[in-house]
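Tip: read the tokens left to right.
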């Protein structure tokens, strides 16, 4: 990674009991050194890569997972093929213990294949693991996932939920960019992606500034940190992040949650619908719709519908579970016309 990135703000001495709203609702990334240093899996990882694998094996049983396997020549970078109509790796459904065996098999291999199990629900794949290794986030009810692999590089992408990423074994380098940097990150297709989210097409190990000149502007906004076992990183919603695993065995546990009600759908669906219905309108019409979106969505406030009696505001009233169900039903009816 080029050395232009700024350091992520670090808060020292934070324990899980200190994770209040000042941290978990931050709009800036925060580095929390040693947050989960007490976890047994961290102790195993510090002992050796094999010890980390042996610890995971205690919990995996006969669980099957989605794994990604790439040849040695991709050097851990899970990405597209040259035509951007496919990928440079295989996606497999395999037993988790077979993945652990494959990682152990290649611990001494100078140029191993790229092996990666991403975003796997812990309670399904490793039942009981969280009894010894967990962070209590209270009423947030997060989705707890585990990520296992060797020296891998995951292209810059965003996630809609807030994210607490905890390093259980190995080291990882995170490079983050604030929302709004998609123009400078050269994002690829949004409907064909390696792992579900649109990614940057820039190779961070060898950025081609002739092809991607605005990436230099993105780097000026970047924040970066290297995390070791026991460290954690809070990544706010919609921050772009590139993740590089630096050791032969790397294990990460993360927690995702949204600062919104369960009934609120993902804005990604609204983006896709807008692409279908708004993007290719004549410029004057598109500008008119931009003003409507500004008025009803992006700058909506108490004055937006103040002139309408409360009982007659319909969809302009505060959204709730019941209203969202009605909206969803109307949308499905219109989309299936």
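Filled-in amino acids:
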């Amino acid at each position: 990674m080029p050395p232009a990135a700024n350091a992520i703000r670090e808060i020292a001495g934070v324990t899980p009991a200190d994770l209040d709203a000042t941290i978990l609702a931050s709009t800036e990334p925060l580095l929390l050194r040693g947050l989960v240093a007490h976890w047994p899996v961290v102790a195993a990882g510090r002992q050796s890569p094999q010890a980390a694998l042996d610890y995971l094996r205690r919990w995996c049983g006969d669980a099957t997972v989605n794994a990604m396997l790439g040849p040695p020549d991709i050097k851990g970078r899970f990405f597209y093929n040259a035509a951007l109509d496919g990928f440079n790796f295989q996606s497999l459904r395999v037993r988790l213990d077979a993945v652990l065996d494959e990682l152990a098999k290649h611990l001494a291999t100078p140029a191993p294949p790229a092996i990666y199990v991403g975003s796997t629900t812990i309670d399904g794949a490793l039942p009981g693991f969280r009894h010894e290794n967990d962070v209590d986030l209270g009423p947030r009810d997060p989705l707890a996932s585990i990520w296992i692999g060797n020296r891998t590089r995951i292209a810059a992408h965003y996630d809609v939920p807030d994210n607490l990423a905890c390093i259980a074994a190995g080291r990882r380098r995170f490079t983050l960019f604030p929302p709004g940097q998609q123009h400078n990150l050269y994002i690829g297709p949004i409907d064909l992606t390696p792992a579900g989210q649109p990614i940057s097409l820039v190779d961070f190990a060898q950025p081609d500034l002739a092809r991607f000149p605005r990436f230099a502007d993105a780097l000026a906004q970047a924040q970066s940190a290297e995390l070791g076992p026991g460290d954690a990183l809070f990544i706010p919603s919609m921050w772009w992040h590139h993740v590089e695993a630096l050791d032969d065995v790397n294990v990460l546990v993360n927690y995702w949650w949204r600062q919104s009600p369960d009934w609120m759908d993902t804005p990604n669906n609204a983006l896709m619908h807008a692409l279908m219905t708004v993007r290719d309108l004549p410029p004057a019409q598109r500008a008119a719709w931009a003003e409507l979106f500004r008025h009803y969505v992006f700058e909506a406030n108490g004055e937006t519908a103040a002139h309408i009696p409360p009982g007659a505001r319909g969809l302009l009233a505060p959204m709730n579970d019941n209203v969202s169900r009605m909206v969803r039903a109307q949308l499905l009816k219109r989309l299936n016309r």
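The chain has two domains: 6-257, 267-335. Residues 267-335 form one domain.
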